[in-house]
Every structure is written in C-alpha cells, then in structure tokens.
Amino acid sequence: MSSFFLLLLGFGLLFLGGELLVKSSVSLALRLKISTLFIGMTVVSFATSAPELFVSLQAVLQGSTNIALGNAIGSNIANITLVLGITAIIFRVQISKQTRSLNYPMMFFASIFFGIVLYFFNGIPVVFGYLFLILLFLFTIFLIFAYRKGYIEDKSNNHELLENSSSGDSLLKNLGLLLVGIFLLKYGADFLIDSATILASNFGVSDRIIAVTILAIGTSIPELATSIVAALRKEDSLAIGNLIGSNMFNILAVLGLTASIKSIDIHDTAIFSFDYFWMMITTLVVGLFIYVFSKQQISRREGIVLVLIYSYYMYQTLKVFI
User: Fold this and answer.
1) Among 116, 165, 172, 316, which residue's beta carbon has the most beta carbons within 10 A?
2) Cα separation, 83 vs 88, whole angstroms
3) What are the φ and ψ backbone dihedral angles of 93, each rounded to 5 degrees?
4) What span, in angstroms and rounded, lies between the C-alpha atoms of 96 and 103?
C-alpha cells in the first residue's frame, strides 16, 4: 500500500477519531453540568490532544523518540501560532481574566520545566514522566478547587452549547462514540507513524522534520476545528482555553504518559536547540499579546502576525530542502 495513501488514511482516522472524542466528551461533561471554561481547559484540551498522545506512544514503542518529542513540540508551536492565529483572523479572541491569571502562567511554567528536564537529562527519563503526570493531576485538582470556590467565573451559555453538542444522544451512545473515537485514533496513529517513517527514509528527510511539520499540523487539526467553532459561537473561554490547555496536556499528559512507559531520549539535538527554542519564542510572543499589546483580546492583526511567525518557523525548518 502506498505510503502517501497510508499517511492520508492516518490523518483521516485521526480527524474522525478526534471529532468523535471531542463531541462525546463535551456532551458528557455538559450533562454533568460542568462549566464550558472548565471543559475547555480540561476535557476538550485532553480530547484534542489525543491524536498527539496516540502518535507519541506509538512512536516511542517503535523506537522513534524523535517523532514523539517533535510531534508534541511541533503541535505546541502550531497551536499558539497557526491555530490561534487563524482563529483570531476569523473572529477576535477575547482574553478572559482566568487566561491571564491562571491558564497562561501554568502553561509557561510547564514549558520552562519541560525545557529544564530536556537540557539536564537529554530527554525525559521515566521518573520525570511520572512527575509530569503528578503535576497534571495537581493542576486539575487546583482547577476544580478554583472553580468550586468561584475564582473561575463562566459567563457562557451551557444550555446553548449543549444543544449544539449532540444533546439528543443518550449517555450510552456518547460512551459508544467515545470508544469508537479512541479506536480510530489508535489505528490512525499506527498508519501515520508507519507512513511517516517510510517517507522519511525514502526522501532522506529526518524523522524529526516529519514530526514537527506534517505530523504536528495533522495532529493539531482537532484544536483548529474546535477553536474556530468555539470562536464563531463566541465561546471565547472554550476557544483559547482549549489551545492553552492543549499545550499543557501535550507536555504533561502526552509526554508524561509516554515517558512513564518508556524513557524518551533526544537523538537529534535540533529538537532542543531549534524546535524547543521556537516553542518558547512563540509562547513569549503570545504572552506579550495577552499582557502588553492586546486590549484583552487577540486581534486580527495579531492573528496575522502569529500565522507569519509560524510560516517563518516552517521556512527555517525546511529551507535546507527548498
């Protein structure tokens, strides 16, 4: 079977699996009367990070640690430049108080801690995989506490969102869709990793470059779809909460769970010296937009800047082949 066909099939299965996972997760969470802001930072973030999780797990199990790290880092770059940029161009994304005081600082802390581990251990040892998962658990508990104490306000309309989230489906049907979504993600990840490895070998391209470009964009499709739909429905908390939360999940959940099963070693130094460096640059740029330049929103102009930054990153990554 053609490697290109397998690649497209893998993306297709990941997209369908991600869609089913997001819709069923949101519907289940809303039926439990959970705030959409909380859903965006937790349930939706984890669901849209599921493609990265399955791809990274499969990559490590097959010995392709460059793909595991490159996919997670590349997806983080794509999320806060390409995805956030496109979303802001379509509809200005409002910055909530919780994003400024809680979400972004936690994402920034997770990113810095991730870099420290990579620098001193040349990868992520198993013990730090467990530590990442512990930090994720503590962060989720903190969110629950903050929400229950009223520190997290949510002015969105849960009833309206529920009507748009398969509200007529039964609990059993939503659980079934959740399982089907996981099944599609698993096989989509299998096809994607196999085809990416073959293509990298055939074209003389490193698996790291395949991971931070094609795979990163492909596994960021659920975030893009979710954020655009949320922005169009004026669910700003869900839109930006999903992206920032997804970046945290990519580090703490995706790499944490993957490293807890098998240590992730850096085999291509460019993953840290170039890709991680760009991840932090883009994180800082978004921070400037949130705290300095923006009037509590990511404007269309800033969205264009983010897309241009991502385009330049892609050019720098691929210029040796241009």
Assistant:
1) 165
2) 9
3) -95, 115
4) 10
CB 298 within 8 A of CB 100: no
pTM (whole model) above 0.85: no
Alpha carbon separation from 266 to 49, 64, 209, 277, 289 (Å, rounded): 22, 10, 14, 15, 32
- Amino acid identity at 177: L
Q: Which amino acid is residue 80, in one-letter code?
A: I
Cα 51 to chain center, whole Å?
9
* CB-based contact 162:24 (threshold 8 Å): no
Give the integer Cα–Cα distance in Å for 45 and 56: 16
Which tokens hold the place of 92?
């200005």
Dihedral sign (CA 312, 314, 319, 322): negative
Q: pLDDT digits over 69-100, tens only? A: 999 999 999 999 999 999 888 888 888 777 88
Strand spans (E) along the chain: 93-94, 123-124, 264-265, 297-298
Q: Which of 248, 310, 244, 249 is closest to 275 using CA atoms? A: 310
Q: What is the pLDDT at residue 322?
A: 56
CA angle 233, 240, 302 (to 5 degrees): 100
Task: Look at residue 265 and give its three-state secondary structure.
Answer: strand
Q: Report in angstroms the alpha-carbon separations of 162 from 23, 30, 65, 97, 236.
A: 10, 6, 39, 24, 16
Token pair in block for residue 129: 């995989």
**How many Å is the maximal CA-CA distance in the chain?**
56
Q: Are the C-beta atoms of 76 and 101 separated by less than 8 Å? A: no
pLDDT in tens, 192-214: 777 877 777 777 788 888 889 88
Is residue 189 within 8 Å of 55, Cβ to Cβ? yes
SS3 263: coil
CA distance 172 to 154: 28
Report residue 147's pLDDT band, with 50, 70 and 90 as the boundaries: low
Q: What is the dihedral of CA 247, 72, 178, 27, to 10 degrees?
A: 20
Residue type, 30: L
Q: What is the pLDDT of residue 158?
A: 47
